[in-house]
Amino acid sequence: MSGPVRTLVLAAAATAALSTAACQDTDQAAPSAPSAPPATSASPTPKPTLAGPGTTCGKLVTPGKYAAKVVLAKGHMSCKTAVAVVKRYYRGVKAGKGGGNAATLKVGRFFCASTTAAGASTGNLGSCTTKTADLRIKIKAQPDVN
Question: How many CB atoms neighbour CB 122 within 10 A?
Answer without folding.
Answer: 10
